[in-house]
Amino acid sequence: MMDRIRIKKPLPGPKARKLIKRDEAILSPSMTRSYPFVAKRGKGAWMEDVDGNIFLDFTAGIAVTAAGHCHPQVTKAVQKQAATLLHMSGTDFYYEPQVTLAEKLAKAAPIKGKKRVFFTNSGTESVEAAFKLARYKTKRQRVISFFGAFHGRTMGSLSLTASKAIQKEKFGPLVPGVTHVGYGYCYRCPYNLTYPECKIDCVDYIEHTLFKKTVPPEEVAAIIVEPIQGEGGYVVPPPDYHERLAALAKRHGILLICDEVQAGMGRTGKMFAIEHWNVQPDIITMAKGIASGLPLGAVIARADIMDWEPGAHANTFGGNPVACAAAIETMNLLENGMLKNVQVVGAYLFKKLQTLARKYPVIGDVRGKGLMVGIELVKDRTTKEPVPKYRDKIIEGAFMKGLLLLGCGETGIRFSPPLVITKKQVDIAVQIVEECLA
Ligand code: PLP
């Protein structure tokens, strides 16, 4: 039964150690494994490892298993679709599941008027497609992105990414024309200002400095922004931030690409995270949680923007029917109670972490929306000196106690459980984090 944490020490167990040895001998060493968890199966937010240990998962496989591990409704839809049609390539042929999903996504997306959808297999591919579409449509080359942003690791997306230098080291030259600016990261304002007195100067900087000194706005195809920065530290920008950014883009005929790969698909308590602001992006990129664990990505755009000619952009696997079937069920679940659960349990998690922060000054900041919540650890609250080693120790300690967590940013911990998480499971997770802090 997977209904509570059960750990036999030592971790990793014998079967896990064996598998890790085989993995290390054959797989690319470029991956970043934080601790030796070897997954065997999952149910909801519970996971069993190869040695029969039961863990509580607050990672959702990097914010992917939205409906929880192996949700019966998703699994059933996948099994049914797998027995009917595995693949026929949406590039050259037609089939129903990708049309149905596109219709559902377009209906839900916070963009007015007629929309079109392009399917991919991952976040980075969605961003590549959006980047290409923006250049194609505007006939402009430059793109503005943000420090702290993570948009993926293929050459175009990597050029937009500015999360960790190691991700770019030795891979240049990257795609030219990308300029990074400071994000609305008020806890560590890149311009050393304080909200609200700053009047969101980080957006004005683009207009008053960048556009006047180095980047002619009429050469800018797009501004790409995460509604809430994910990899960069679960950073929520201030109220009005996205409205100001959208207005700036509009003034200069620049397309606004909203990267919802991590924050989208209900994670923040709204179907699309940008709905927390009063903004309509021109292009939206999605992936991760969209199909509750199957590889799928999507780009949603205004139809007058996504009007490229046949042959301009396509792929072999995008919109795979099995992945689409999983995504349709994920959306059905969100619409029928899961989104509400994110709001209720997310608020509960946030409050519990705030209580923890009152007790432990090492927690410098608690932030997030819905079930996209992060804490930032600091040496002391005045200097805000980051303590990544301490963060890593907490994550490792939590693993030893049966809780799966992931870091984010330089010194943060992200809480991104499956969206079916319960208050009781939140209690267990926060209790473990507290034990580690203590
Ligand atoms: N965009 C955002 C906001 C992400 O968080 C990520 C992955 O973490 C990506 C893009 C890249 O997605 P993928 O790893 O599926 O290529």
Bound molecules: pyridoxal-5'-phosphate
Strand order of the largest sheet: 4-10-9-8-7-5-6
What is the level 1 CATH name of the largest domain?
Alpha Beta
Q: Would you tell me the overall average pLDDT?
A: 98
Total number of helical segments?
11
CATH topology of the largest domain: Aspartate Aminotransferase, domain 2
Record field, number of beta strands:
15
CATH homologous superfamily designation of the largest domain:
Type I PLP-dependent aspartate aminotransferase-like (Major domain)
Taking all Cα atoms into account, the compactness measure Rg is 21 Å
The CATH architecture of the largest domain: 3-Layer(aba) Sandwich
Distance between the termini: 30 Å
- Beta percentage is 15-25%
* Total number of domains: 2
The SSE string, one letter per element, is HEEEHHHEHEHEHEHEEEHEEHEEEH
Which ranges are low-confidence, i.e. pLDDT below 50, for 5 or more consecutive residues? Answer: none
Shape field:
globular
Give a quick account of the main beta sheet: strands, pairing sense, barrel closure.
7 strands, mixed
**Helix proportion:** 25-40%
